[in-house]
Design goal:
The relative contact order is 0.21. Helix content is 28%, strand content 24%. By secondary structure, it is α/β, with parallel strands linked by helices. Helix 1 links the parallel strand 1 and strand 2. The strands form two sheets. Strands 1, 2, 5, 6, 7, 8 and 9 form a seven-stranded mixed beta sheet that branches.
Amino acid sequence: MTQVVIVGGGAAGLSAGLFASKNGLDTHVFDTDKTWLHKAHLFNYLGLDSKDGTEFLEDSREQVESFGAEIHEAEVTSVERAEDGFVVTADGKEYEATYVVLATGAKRDLAEQLGCAFTDENVVDVDVTMETSIENVYATGAMVRAEEWQAIISAGDGAAAALNILTKEKGEHFHDFDTPADAE
């Protein structure tokens, strides 16, 4: 069974994919490559002086894949609850998952389909870890905000979701801190 399925391959989805796969979780990212980041140029992303959005996505995908995540160019058409987690359907194929991270920008139909709670502002209601009202389903980025849509905020949301998943999997509060001694 796939442990983590991430729907969306922008900053939030790739960040979640990085943290999950880097720490040993079986991770699948589904993306249609239609993120608004292709239209962006990042001057306001911490650590980057200036980077084209498409180049940022290519570099991010490469990094996520280097830790073992599988990235599928496919549209997810449904996410349904199952006995032991969730069944995610993409391009007519079904994938089982323990956790689902929704990172589909302002497109909130999968969260609605699952029955996630929404706020009065019509955004997905999440806690500080980005978990929705449906246990083990997370929502990130523009799905959870009426405003403040920034790549770096979305990446933080994806990281928060993955760290919470890792906390659940490891049985204790999980920190992903690397030190120079850990570098290869």
